[in-house]
Amino acid sequence: MKEVSLERFTSMKNHRLLVKVLRITAAVLAMAAQVLLACLG
After folding, report:
1. Rounded to an integer, what distance in angstroms lies between the CA atom of residue 25 and that of residue 21?
2. So where does this one cross the membrane (predicted)?
3. What is the residue extent of each domain of the chain?
4. What distance in Å separates the CA atoms of residue 11 and residue 13, rounded to the nearest whole number?
5. What is the pLDDT of residue 1?
6. How far apart are CA 21 and CA 14, in angstroms?
7. pLDDT profile of the chain (41 residues), mean per 10
């Protein structure tokens, strides 16, 4: 029982980390897009 709950906790932690990484990646991509548009425009 303990192993299962620990596994679930770890997957939750990984999910949160993944969401954080995705948000940062999205923000970086948005910034890069703005810079590209500014350079082209």
Report:
1. 6
2. 21-40
3. 1-41
4. 5
5. 58
6. 10
7. 77 92 98 96 85
Supply 5's token pair: 């709950």
Q: What six digits make up the tokens of 31?
A: 């910034």
Amino acid at 14: N
Cα dihedral sign, 4-6-9-13: negative
Task: State the amino acid at position 39 in one-letter form.
Answer: C
What is the token pair recorded at 11? 């997957």
CA 6 to chain centre: 23
The reported pTM is 0.66
